[in-house]
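Dear support,

Our group has been running a series of protein-ligand predictions, and this particular one with coenzyme A is the one our PI (initials K.S.) wants archived with full inputs and outputs. We had some confusion internally about which version of the output was final, so please treat the block below as the authoritative record. The input we submitted was:
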Amino acid sequence: MTSCAITGTGVFTPRESITNDELVQAFNAYADLYNTENAAAIAAGEMAAKDPSSSEFIFAASGIEQRYVMDKSGVLDPAVMHPHLRVRSDDEPSIMAEMALAACRDALAQAGRKAEEVDLVICAASNHERPYPAIAVEIQQLLGAGGFAFDMNVACSSATFGMQAAADMIRAGSVRCALVVNPEICSGHLEWRDRDCHFIFGDVCTAAVLEPSDAANGAHFLIHSTRCATQFSNNIRNNNGFLRRAHDQMQDRRDMQFMQEGRKVFKEVLPLVSKHILSHLEDAGVSADSLRRLWLHQANKSMNDFIGRKVLGRVPEPHEQPNILQDYANTSSAGSIIAFSKYSADLEPGDLGLICSFGAGYSVGSVLVERAG
Ligand code: COA
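Confirmed final output from the archive:
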């Protein structure tokens, strides 16, 4: 069977960023406004007052220092508290497609490929701007790619599940050159008015080119094997589906944005992911000692520290398990790919590493790679 390789990656980083201090200042101004406007109901015990957020809490609980966003002004306006993302006309490129183009072009340049050589585009992300036509088909058209394209959503595991789908098609011979692209506009589905989660997410887009390894133009990463797993849980959920308008007149329903039971996620996902990685390695005949790098999902530093320790059986050195969440926050499916893209060029031929994402579903996806070429 044809072997498959990752031959290029690209990261589109939005121009605007928000530090924890800026975020907390805006949230606390919003909370003050809310508490003043609702003072009578709060005093009567009919409503709960909003507690302030704190930069110290955010850093200690998550390791996040800042996040990139597609629009900073709306998020930081205490009277708005969401990004201003202009609704585009049907004649304009959609915002996800625009982000995707930038990331795809970088990935193609690294792979030494032209867009017209691409015959599969998978747009894999945790939310899509519209149900159809698929964003992936728009990206295919804007790039000038051939073949076919489709969207997929496995929340935070979209990128690794997308890689497995593309790698399987390449191995089977139905595709020669695939782009897996992950435009994550998390600022659009984050509830910036909820202090429990307002610090969690940021925006970004990543892309990866996958090809048969014998077609690689330069240094690349052989995909040894991939593994995907899911297990239903309501602990990370967003109810904003296509029946929203048809079913009720709700205003401001909290469940129409990202919601999580963060503590439960923490406790339940850690053993799931550690077991997943260890059994993937065992079945691949690879010992954890021989892994030079882990590129983990970027949601929480303590979570990554725990997983690294469980997998390697010791505290990983920082270079063995690079984190990018301090700069990007949680970027859903893109996080592990940012880490891979930024921290993989120094590996030597023969070095092994593992990309692993996890999140809503629950879902876990891992990709075992070897530096080559
Ligand atoms: N500022 C100050 N205090 C805050 C706060 C904020 N922004 N948000 C919450 N708190 C308070 C809480 O009210 C709570 O107070 P209490 O003890 O008096 O009730 C305390 O801080 C602890 O809150 P908790 O939510 O239990 O914090 P945590 O230590 O579990 O950290 C997360 C929260 C979300 C960072 C953490 O649970 C996590 O990362 N979970 C996994 C998330 C994940 O991977 N999700 C996948 C998403 S795709």
